[in-house]
Every structure is written in structure tokens, then in C-alpha cells.
Amino acid sequence: MCGRFVRHTNAAELTRLVGALLPVPDPGPSYNVAPSQPILNARERDGQRVLEPLQWGLVPRWAKDARKLHPINARAETVDTNGVFRAAFRGGRTLIPADGFYEWRRTEAGKQPYFITRSDGRPMWFAGVADRWRGPEGTLETCAIITTAANDAVRPLHDRMPVILDESHWDQWLDPRHFDAEALQALLQPCDPGLLTLYPVSRAVSSPANDSPSLVDALEA
Would you please indicate which residues are annotated as catalytic (active-site) residues? Predict the structure, then answer.
């Protein structure tokens, strides 16, 4: 799964990288992004690619109560058939920028967090889905990160990982005018293990209250 991640690249740079045309409010950098927080999503809206913050934890449009259903991850294998995500997959596909994510490994001394990032230092872009819920309290726009089977790099830590989409697939993924479930799901594969580097970090990341650049410092051997 993906339950915590890092995003410190600023919105202006991310806008340039993803080719978004509109400026956005930037929630600001975080070294410990947690569920229910606003996270940036790139998506096509009204014929333009935009980058904007959505609440992490998807509330499907048909939910009667926005407080009761907000999954943070959608499985690649069932995102088109699961009723919670089906509409979002068909019309609300997004890209979620990150500079890395955390996963925990079980050890005799307890759970040890690891930071997983790109070996080349560039931001990674998770496949995401978004939906809009309307209720008496107003409108709520939310999202979830799509996960797939872990690759050889991540598997020692967990059996799932976020889908990291290659830039060559961004246009196909974001295009709301064309929907081919089989072709889109074919994109939702584990990335090449060589793309990633990982190392153990402080257990301080286990608390969402902690948020500082030191969280991604490698533990000394």
C-alpha cells in the first residue's frame, strides 16, 4: 500500500514538469504526507491540464456520508470493477507527484521505516483517481493512489507499492476523452526496480505529527 509519502518539489516546478497551464495554490512541502491531507493532483479539466490540491482519501460521488468512506489506495487489478472507484477510473484519472514514499519492514525490534525514492533524484508521479462528492455540507474533491504488486526492490518491505507512471504514459492516462479499460490497466504495472533506491530512516516518521527534512535522512550503519 502507500500510506505516507514525501513531496518537497514546489508546485511551480511540478507545473512545468507535467505541462499544466494554470497556477495552483501550493499546500507546501511535506516530508510526512498522511491521509486526509490535501495533496497535489495533475488532471485534465475543461480542456486544460491543471495541478490542484485534493483531499487524500476518496469519497465516491454516491456516498451518503462523506465521513464514512475514504480509502486512500485503489488496487490496480480491481479499480475498474470496484464500485468505490469505477466512476473515478473512467472519468477522474490523475497524476500525484511525490519525491518518495515510506514503507515499513517488520523486524525483531519492531517495524523499521524505509524511504523509497528515485535513484536519479527526480519526482515520481503516482497514478491516481479522483471523484467529486456533493452533499448538504458542500462539495468535496478527493483522491486515492493506485497500487500494484511490489517490484523486486520493494517486495522485501511490502507486497504492494504505488503505480509510478512513466512520462511516456502521462497523456494516455490523463486523457478524459478516450477510455479503454484494458489499455489503461495495462499501464498499471510495477516500475523497473532499477528506478528506485531505498534505505532505512528514523522511526519518527511513524507519527504524522513529525514533519521535517530530517525524516528522509538515512540511518547511520
Answer: 2, 103
Distances (CA, A) of 214 to 32, 150, 208: 11, 26, 14
In tens, the pLDDT along 123-177 reads 999 999 999 999 887 899 999 999 999 999 999 999 999 999 999 999 999 999 9
Domains of the chain: 5-216 (3.90.1680.10)
CA atoms 29, 33, 38, 43: torsion sign: positive
User: How far is 210 from 41, CA to CA, in rounded Å?
Assistant: 23
Take residue 124 and report the three cell numbers written for it.
515520481
pLDDT digits (tens, 9 = 90+) for 79-124: 999 999 999 999 999 999 999 999 999 888 889 999 999 999 999 9
